[in-house]
Amino acid sequence: MRCFRACLMIWLLIVVFGASPALAADSAGQGFDPDSIVSVWIDGVHREALVFLTELGVDIDGVWGDRARAYIPAERFQELESLGFKLTAIPNPIKRNPGLRAGYHTFSELTAELQSIAAAHPNLCRLESIGDSTNGRELWFMKISDNVTQEEDEPEFKYISTMHGDEPVGMELCINLINLLVDQYGSDPQITRLVDEVEIWIMPLMNPDGYTSSSRYNAQGRDLNRDFPDRVDDPYNTTTGRGTETRHVMNWAFNKSSALSANFHTGALVVNYPYDSDPNPWASYSATPDDALFREQSLTYSRLNAPMYNSHSFNNGITNGIAWYLVYGGMQDWNYVWMGCNEVTIELSNTKWPSYSQIAGLWNDNRDAMLAYMELCLEGVRGSVTDAVSGMPLDATVEVVGKDHEVYTDPEVGDYHRMLLPGTYSLRFSASGYQTKTFFGVSVGSGDATRLDVGLLQTGLSEPVPDLKVNGSNGPITINTSQNLTVTVALNPASLNGVSMDWWVFVDTPMGIYSYSAGGGGRWRSTAEPERTYSGGLFNLSSTSVLSMSGLPKGTYVFTFAIDALNDTYEGSFIDTAQVTVN
Predict the structure, then answer these.
(1) Which domain, by its residues, includes 439?
(2) Please, which of 224, 330, 345, 351 could form a disulfide with 272 given CB 3.0 to 4.6 Å?
(3) Do 346 and 271 touch, CB atoms closer than 8 A?
(4) In sequence order, what E strands does 197-257 have?
(5) How far apart are CA 513 and CA 531, in angstroms?
(6) Cβ atoms of residues 292 and 402 within 8 Å
(7) What is the pLDDT of residues 88-103, one digit of tens each?
């Protein structure tokens, strides 16, 4: 019966309201008039009605109990009322009071300030335009790093604000954050650590056309936070058919490897985490495979923002996306599902466009939270994924066994950054043309990320198998001082012939460490630490003797034969040992 009522309601709405999106702007943006859209309160609505309206393209913007805020074309106002919805128009704050713009940066002033900061701090900042808006305004991204011109082995983080043009608070806070990072670098330990160890990207204004016209929408009439691929109703990770600004942000992200991000809005006071949509649109909660991590990351922000954390509307100032209201095409879900990046949506103020006099207080409420949230990308597991033979970085996929989610390396450096809560995990690494490798029992603490570097072998190659024997045995063995000890090493397979590898053959004795050298007919010499036996082409060894002698002093001897497939540093990647006790 419920399904019948739902289908009947949808059919009625389609007949009366029309099945096209709420704005009905053409794909080229011709003829879109921001004044044709009105913001309304819809009272007395239940979840089913909100889902129906969302499915038809009505732009739900927030829900509190049985009251929702939405954006609709002005000509549809009476049509919705005729269906029994109770609507109240919300005046456009800027149209009502143009003086609210005073103090906020204009687009020209924003551009000038960002250019000035970049010019004053060339060693820390690089200002990039990732493309122009529909009306030709640059979309500015500020990169901040201690080595700003280089790709480094460090997590990438981004803040994006004001994708809704009538929500400018985040723009001002992002400008404040950029100034704080460059001004306090070298003097504030927290900020210095962030700039030194994180590649930071900040976009203060994603929708400059909408901001200039005081409109939620871009110049094509698109809500940019309903314009991204969606795992439920638009599962195609392509820029085709999307708004100008959406396409630019997606193309930029395709060439980056962000680990963590957030986008800033106003109209509520809460941190909203994925998922925003679900195959069941009436779901009261939609958990990602990293739900516990998302909750903790959201709380990291809200705990440091007292008004947010003490919210009367949201428990501890956080909410799951669909638990609040259904959204298709949101940027945070796209980042998580397709880009392997944890993103949340942060609502900074219950007032959409507050007086500029409130910005100082809002900055004080959010400054520490913004910094603490950025630091989260330094936790979990990190490392590099390389070709086990050549050491070249790989475009690889990293998975936590048991979690249906992938993160990706930066192919330029090969680094990955998988944020995780403290615990023990199994991690799987894969790359096209390479053998998959799984590591078990990886321990993650509450501080800096655990380091796990990985070398993958190409498909068709076999790992070198070192085999060390003592008197023909794999050990352990016991002999007396008069008995002869013969130590041999063998190496298979031959498929790695000619590959450059380092060998290590050494023994830890009561007298110290002795390393074996293959040169000069073979000899052992005392060393403080193991030294390379041989560096060069790897070839098939078959039971090669490295020691044959009697009269060894009493004690325990641990012989080690290792191959280093990771180039210059012995990692014990492929290793065999045998223990000998001399009585």
Answers:
(1) 381-456
(2) 345
(3) yes
(4) 199-203
(5) 10
(6) no
(7) 999 999 988 999 999 9
d(Cα 43, Cα 66) in Å, to the nearest integer?
6
For 55, the enclosing helix (H) or strand (E) is helix 47-55
**Residue 139, pLDDT score:** 98
At position 268, the amino acid (one-letter code) is A
Could you tell me whether strands 381-387 and 454-456 are parallel, antiparallel, or unpaired per DSSP bridges?
parallel
Q: Are residues 116 and 59 in the same domain?
A: no
Q: At what angle do helices 189-197 and 359-375 cross, to 10 degrees?
A: 60
347 is catalytic: yes
Q: Is 474 helix (H, G, I), strand (E, B) or coil?
A: coil
What is the pLDDT at residue 572?
52
Gap between the Cα atoms of 479 and 483, Å rounded: 6
pLDDT tens-digit readout, 284-297: 999 999 999 999 99
Quote helix, strand, coil % in the chain, to nearest 5: 30, 35, 40
Amino acid letter at 184? Q
* CATH code of the domain containing 419: 2.60.40.1120
Q: Which of 152, 199, 245, 347 is catalytic?
A: 347
Task: Kindly state the tokens that stand for 154.
Answer: 């460090």
Same domain, residue pair 305 and 433:
no
